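Glycine--tRNA ligase, pasting as requested.
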Amino acid sequence: PATTLQDIISHAKEYGFVFPSSEIYDGLQAVYDYGQNGVELKNNLKQVWWKAMTQLHDNIVGIDAAIFMHPLTWKASGHVDGFNDPMIDNKDSKKRYRADQLLEGKAEEYEAAGEPEKAAALLAKMGALLGAEKLDEVRELIIEEKIVCPISKTLNWTEVRQFNLMFSTQVGSVAEDSSNIYLRPETAQGIFVNFLNVQKSGRMKVPFGIAQIGKAFRNEIVARQFIFRMREFEQMEMQFFIKPGTEMEWYNTWKDTRLKFHKAIGLPADKLKYHDHDKLAHYANAAVDIEYQFPFGFREIEGIHSRTDFDLKNHQELSKKKQQYFDPELGEDGKAIGNYIPYVVETSVGADRLFLATFCNAFTQETGEKERTYLKLHPALAPIKAAVLPLVKKDGLAEKAQEIANSLKSSFRTIYDDGGAIGKRYTRQDLIGTPYCIAVDYQTMEDNTVTIRHRDSMEQERIAISALKEKIGYEVAM
Ligand code: ATP
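Structure tokens follow.
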């Protein structure tokens, strides 16, 4: 049977990956918590990304900027004035929705009903209308598609208007003293405002990049699709500073590099595609999404944007601090290139969306004789790399297994489990995606060998304890 989003949500909850936030109080909409296995998978994804960006590129370094930023940051970025999210209100329920998400919901219905062409056509039409800012026609499309308010069930919609989704809060203790600041809606600006700090202190030469992983906040109106769209989420962004005029070259390079990354961590080529933007954001001169085929259709997991000098130029204007780079090279005309504001190509991927894509892709249900459910995660991403299981607890087998688990622990996440029949213990590991189960039996006591059971093939092989570390150590090939 085809995997549904509900299968994914249930499995994620039952096996300690993702829980609804504040669940004992019936949860908080569009907010989720990662459980004991989820946090490991997410950390592994972040680590692989961090390594791909910083460790494997001599000219990319990382930073960790604060979530709170000076309010002028959001003026410079265009977030305060540039309202980018099309909202529509239902006159009966007085509820507000994001117009694009109502239409996406309809596309999902088509998808679920086995009509992917209809879904794609609707999304394309919506993209074109939003791109041309034809908000009246967006409303007409909603009515044409008979999309009713989920609460009032009526078609009584207002016009579509643009809003912004930033959360604000106060800093300072006394009301009169306090000033309004925002929770950052993207991590990118923390990189831009530190561009010169990093460039100077690290003596970085253009082209170079700054990478960051961190929380971002958007007051998303519609809570749907599990962790795909949350109000508090995590971004992994890299801003690549380049010489003006070289942006298309770098845009294409990063487009390529990032698709390769997703394949390297195990997402299959046929479930990934590029989607060129019909609508360019106010800061971009070229933009593409990398989309993954979720159970609810192809959706964005990462955006690659050529942002020109939009951000640095605006920060220079508002801060009155030069945001220029001095290029010591000589140009083609033999003259020194000198000062300029670099252009930027950005790659921006949601850690949570990448988690969801990885999780959906790994979720495997086999039917028939070998009926079982397991997570076919890339071994480098699996929450637990190895489980050591004594066949029985007596005759020193438990102690031997403990000893093996302890010897592996500092190299990778290893657990020891002696509870229940061995078949049950294998199943438990399959369900959370552990790639290797190490069984300790009577032969182990004689010759120091163990059996390794492979998660995907369920095949078992006998190997020496001393060979375990090398067998299990696993990296993403990039
Ligand atoms: P969407 O159109 O789906 O709202 P976006 O185009 O606004 O996304 P960007 O601003 O380009 O997204 O953000 C970059 C990445 O951050 C996205 O590709 C996505 O992975 C992630 N992201 C954005 N908004 C959310 C959210 N509400 N919840 C989880 N991840 C998000």
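Note for the archive: The pocket of adenosine-5'-triphosphate is lined by residues 186, 218, 220, 229-230, 233, 235, 300-303, 348-350, 352-353 (CB under 6 Å).
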